[in-house]
Amino acid sequence: MIAHLTFLRPYLRRYRGYLLAGCVCVLIHNVLGLIVPMVMRHVVDLLGGEVKPLTIWAYAGAIVGLTLFSGIFLFFMRRTIIWASRKMEFDLRGDLFAHLMSLSQSYFDKTPTGEILSRASSDIDAVRMMLGPGIMYTVNTVIVSAGAIPFMLYLDWRLALYTLLPLPIISLIVNRIGSLVHHRFRAIQEHFAVLS
After folding, report:
1. Which pLDDT band holds residue 195 (cuts at 50, 70, 90)?
2. Residue range 67-121, pLDDT digits in tens
3. Per-residue confidence at 135, pLDDT binned at 50, 70, 90?
4. How many CB atoms lie within 10 A of CB 144?
5. What is the pTM assigned to this prediction?
6. Are 33 and 64 in contact (CB under 8 A)?
7. What's the rounded Cα separation, in Å, for the pair 32 and 70?
8. Using CA atoms, how far apart are residues 37 and 18, in angstroms rounded to an integer?
9. Which of 27, 81, 91, 115 has the most CB atoms around its CB within 10 Å?
10. Range list of H helices, the chain
11. What number of CA atoms fall less than 13 Å from residue 121's CA on the CB side?
12. What is the predicted pLDDT for the residue at 115?
């Protein structure tokens, strides 16, 4: 599967600066998001004793500030990675069109129009989704897992294990459903290609 995606390397290299900046924004966004629960924990601990209103306001300001900065980096994360994926989609469409223009008339005589249109529209859109949101959510999941799981284990390892127990089962179910959706999507594409 990954071997089939090697043709995307030039497009990824072309916009690697934007993708890297987006990944840095993902990291900062998630780090700030993980700090907020730690601040909340301190606030809850303080409520057990005497606490000055000014202290509560200071913690509230810290939470609002962290959330605001986290939102800013969330915006730039989406802005850079999604923008790069749109540019890669534009380049892919241009290269596909140039390739189609170089083909002989006999290719178009024996290839269904629906198949060509499918390659030029839904297939390239699927590639863009993988290059944009796919990369963004994968990096986001890795960073959140690397940060949140140790933090959960530190706070309460028993509760963390109970929480993480269903993850392998959920992963298998999602993988199975994803495989079914992929096969059915391909079958529908082939069906409409034959009809056209």
Report:
1. low
2. 999 999 999 998 999 999 999 999 999 998 899 889 888 888 888 877 788 778 8
3. confident
4. 15
5. 0.74
6. no
7. 6
8. 30
9. 81
10. 9-14, 16-46, 53-102, 105-110, 113-118, 124-129, 135-155, 157-164, 167-195
11. 7
12. 77
C-alpha torsion angle, residues 92, 96, 97, 101 (rounded to 10): 150
Q: Report the SS3 class of residue 135.
A: helix
Residue with tokens 């600066």: 17
**192 within 8 A of 123, measured Cβ to Cβ:** no
Q: Please, are residues 195 and 114 in contact by the beta-carbon 8 Å criterion?
A: yes
Q: State the alpha helices, DSSP H only, in 103-166.
A: 105-110, 113-118, 124-129, 135-155, 157-164
User: To which residue do tokens 């900065």 refer?
Assistant: 69
In this structure, how many other beta carbons lie within 10 angstroms of the beta carbon of residue 32?
19
CA pair distance 101, 191, nearest whole angstrom: 25
